[in-house]
Write a structure and sequence with these properties.
3 helices; 276 residues; alpha+beta; Mannose-Binding Protein A, Chain A; 3 domains; eleven-stranded mixed β-sheet; 19% helix; elongated
Length: 276
């Protein structure tokens, strides 16, 4: 009888230890779970101010934003802590720089994984900038010739936009074609000034997409079959051959405004700057 009781007591003790250990493991796992990185961090800059937004993270009690004016952001960079919303306005920033950001969710267990990077340009020649797919795009503060717009782009380390996908093309028009509620005609980085009718991106060719990006002469289409150029464009309209050598997206056209149009490079449009 004593032997049986002894065995029962041993079994109950072992079960209690196993149960406590399991409970401890579960609590440890829960306590050390790392918060995921916030998705869709976006930065928009204008007037010495950068506005940032991101998707909220379940379980987060606040967010920490890391930033600098050089790329390669990590958690050793300047931190803005205790942000309780999924957005932040960074005020009193200096013109003449590109600012880079990452954000992380925070709770009682610590700081979670850093997001992907977003950036924005602030410059006296820029009235607004937005982030898309890891690139920064900016709108010049005034209208100017194509050459002047290309110079303004180079001054902030960029170039007039190269449109690699239809999604990028439409996004760019929707962000900047009516920026600030004003219809705007926009310079892009397409030219046919070397051989009339042979269009190219002035910042260089794009490899690895089967020629989709570099096929931009008359009749060029996106992979879904839609036209890159507006109806009857490019047409080199004017008094003689070679008068319209610069590419545009024109909000003033009546339909499918995101499609392209050729225009005289001496015209006065806003430039769309792209920075890698």
């Amino acid at each position: 009888m004593n032997k049986v009781l002894y065995i029962i007591l041993i079994s109950l003790f072992s079960l209690t230890i196993f149960s406590c250990a399991k409970d401890t493991d579960e609590k440890t796992t829960t306590a050390t779970a790392t918060l995921s990185a916030p998705d869709n961090l976006s930065a928009s800059g204008a007037n010495n101010t950068i506005t940032l937004t991101w998707n909220s993270v379940s379980g987060a009690t606040s967010y920490t934003l890391y930033w600098d004016n050089v790329s390669g952001i990590d958690n050793s960079d300047t931190a803005i802590t205790s942000i309780t919303n999924d957005n932040y306005t960074h005020n009193n920033m200096d013109n003449g720089s590109t600012y880079y950001y990452k954000v992380a969710a925070v709770n009682s267990s610590g700081t979670g994984t850093l997001s992907s990077v977003a950036s924005a340009i602030l410059s006296a020649n820029i009235q607004g900038s937005e982030t898309n797919e890891g690139h920064t795009y900016a709108l010049t503060s005034s209208t100017m010739s194509w050459d002047s717009a290309a110079t303004a782009a180079a001054a902030v380390g960029g170039y007039l936009a190269t449109l690699n996908t239809k999604a990028e093309n439409i996004w760019l028009y929707e962000k900047f074609g009516t920026y600030g509620g004003t219809a705007r005609d926009l310079w892009i980085g397409a030219l046919d000034n070397v051989t009339e009718g042979t269009w190219y991106w002035y910042n260089g060719t794009t490899s690895g997409d089967g020629g989709v990006s570099d096929n931009i002469s008359s009749g060029a289409k996106w992979p879904d079959g839609s036209n890159k150029w507006h109806t009857n464009e490019p047409n080199d309209y004017g008094s003689g051959s070679g008068t319209e050598n610069c590419g545009t997206i024109r909000s003033s056209l009546s339909a499918a405004e995101w499609r392209w149009n050729d225009y005289a490079c001496s015209g006065s449009y806003y430039g769309i700057i792209e920075v890698d």
